[in-house]
Structures are given as C-alpha cells and as structure tokens.
C-alpha cells in the first residue's frame, strides 16, 4: 500500500493531496472485479489513477474505489450499506445536474462560484441546469400575469407570515388553477417552470404588501422582482440578489431536492414536486437554518457582544448556527462571494457588522468557516430585507435545481422506493418490561 504526496498528478486524473493510493491488484480485489473492469471504471472517470514513478504501473485512489463499491453494494441490496447511504453517505441516485467535490460546486460542469461572480443571470443558470447548455446571450423569461388576485391569498395569511410559508401556500393554488399540469411534455414543463419561478419571486411580499405583486411580476428578471417585492432601496440589489440565487440554484441531493425527486418518481405534477420540496425546505436543519442565524444575530445585537453570546452558547453545549458544512471541511465555497457582496454594498449596516464580529469570534475559537446560510443572512442584512428573506432567497434559487432534478428523474423513469432494514423494537415499545 502506498501514499502519494505532493502537488498535481501527471495523470489526466487529478487527485487531492495525501490521497491513499493502491496497486491495481488490490484495487480490483476491493471492488471484486477483474482488472479489465477496473480499467473501464477509470476510462469512465469513476476511479482516478496516477502513474507509479519508475514503473509502467498505475496506482488507484482508494476513496474513489470505496465510493464506487458502496454504490454497487447499495444497488445490490446490501442493507447496512444502503442504510448508511441515506446519512451523508454515498450517492444513491445517478445525476448529471450538479457535482460537489474537492474542487467545489459545479453545475453541469460549470463552476457555480465562477458563474455567480462573473455576473451570469439566474435565468441563464436555470436554463443550464434544465438543458445542459449555458445560453450564449442573457436569457429573459416572459412576465406572467398573477394567477389569482394577490389580495385573496393575503386575506388567508396572517400579516406576519414568513415569505417561505406564504409561497408554500401559493404553489398548490397555482397548481389547482393549471388544468394542463399533468404528464406535461418536457418543453411545456420548462415553460411552466419559468412562469412558476417568476411567480415565486414576485409573491414573496404577499402577506405584507399584496399590492406589490403585480408590479413585481413586470420586472425583467427574477432578481429584480425580488428587489421590488421587498422594497429594497439599494441600487445594486438586483445584481447581488442574482449572485445569491445562482449560488443557491442546486446542491446535489440535499433534503429538499431528494424530496422533489421522490415525489417526481411517483408521477406527480411539477407543482406537487415543488410543494413537497418547500415543505422539506422549511425544516430548521435545512432552509430554516437561515432563520436560526437571524435569531443569533438578533441575540448578539451589537458587535461588542459577539464574544459573550458565542462563548455562552458554547459553554451551554449549544451549537452556533451557520458554521461548518459536512461536504466542505475546508469551508463552504459559496459563502465568500456572499460575504464580499454584503461588505461591498453596506459594510456599515448594523447586521453586517454584527455578523462580521460573530465570524471573527468563531474563527478565533477554532471553529469551521461560515456556511451559505450565514452568507445569505449577511447579504439580506446589507440590503435591508425583511426577516425570513434569507431562507426565501435560498428557496427561490433552489427551485431551479428542484425543476432540473424533477426533469431528470422523469427521464430515468423509475420509482424511488428505498427498503427499510427491520430491527426489533425496544422492549418498552413492544410491550415487554424495560431492562433494569
């Protein structure tokens, strides 16, 4: 067994530093295949290899081999592996929409961070996710009319309803009014998705200011609709909201996206898939994480209180929301562009100053860098957006990815139906006496 150190490999397959490498015989044995099959996996990009210096032999990246074996075992019905795959484990679905790896986040092979900082519009990125092709010219989606009077929905919602909750109520109503939503062909579904995303952006204010919805729909872009609906006075708001939407557009099989795919596999219509995804998004461990960050910054209130609040939370054994990400041990690459945007437009905003102070305290305490949820809240503070705006921005952006995965799941055509690994219930549940 060998460990290769140093910089980039001379092979056409790059591998991170300190990756463990194994010879061909051991690699084939680990996978339970012949060498010819191993070489096929290499040619398909599933396993990376590097030449062994001074020989004609190659060495193979162990983490790639283990990942591939876990995928094969899960498909073969190995219960323990399949169970672990649902907990931040190996992929259980083949997808070409996005990829999360050591090099960061990529949409159909395009760096998500590069797309965002280069100023590509959210509509362009959505089309990339849906079609696999990045438009050569800026995309403009038609402005739809309100599908129902905004005042009707506003009357059903308490005035303080968070935007995500308002959109969760809106989507089923839009579906009920669309008689052609069932078993729609792909091109019709993409047109429906464009209208739906435009509606989501314009209706974020329906509980507080329903009169803005119709005017917000007339804006040129999704980002501009959001800026008008929320009434931000920052001139660069559409540009910076576009950046946030692009960074949130997809993230592989996160909770809400997996929910959308499972729903799509049942044959449900697009509105039902998006509604299911939004329900998953509302949880405090997913889209609701931004709400917890907002609550943290409200508790801190002033930059000079950051250390006291953070250390007291840590002393009580509580987590500090918005820091660290299981898929990015070296830091979430989506966060720096959001932090830079917030600091570039209104560094003096109280919320931005408080957020920056919390980041510095956490860094000094040796904790991981902030996640995208923290960056979204920081940008919302800089733009003067209402409470709940960060989670809503996350949801509107991620809707592009939901649609992409719904379309892909329909192409694959199979029902997503995991098996359960049965375990005996505890004695207290089954009616027996609990152990002493």
From TrEMBL:
Which SUPFAM superfamilies does the UniProt record give?
A: Citrate synthase
Task: Give me the Gene Ontology terms describing cellular component.
Answer: cytosol
Question: Which keywords does this Swiss-Prot/TrEMBL entry list?
Answer: Transferase
Top-rank lineage group of the source organism:
Bacteria
What are the Helix-turn-helix domain coordinates in residue numbering?
25-71
Extract the signal peptide range.
Answer: none
InterPro entries the UniProt entry points to: Citrate_synth-like_lrg_a-sub, Citrate_synth-like_sm_a-sub, Citrate_synthase, Citrate_synthase_sf, HTH_17
- This one is known as citrate synthase (unknown stereospecificity)
The pathway this protein participates in, as annotated, is: Carbohydrate metabolism; tricarboxylic acid cycle; isocitrate from oxaloacetate: step 1/2
The keyword Transferase belongs to this UniProt entry's keyword annotation: yes
EC number(s) stated in the UniProt entry for this protein: 2.3.3.16
If you read the UniProt record, what top EC class would you report for this enzyme, in one word? transferase
What GO MF terms are annotated? citrate synthase activity
Family the UniProt entry places it in: Belongs to the citrate synthase family.
**One BP term from GO:** carbohydrate metabolic process
Give one Pfam family, short name only: HTH_17
Q: Where is this region: Disordered?
A: 414-436
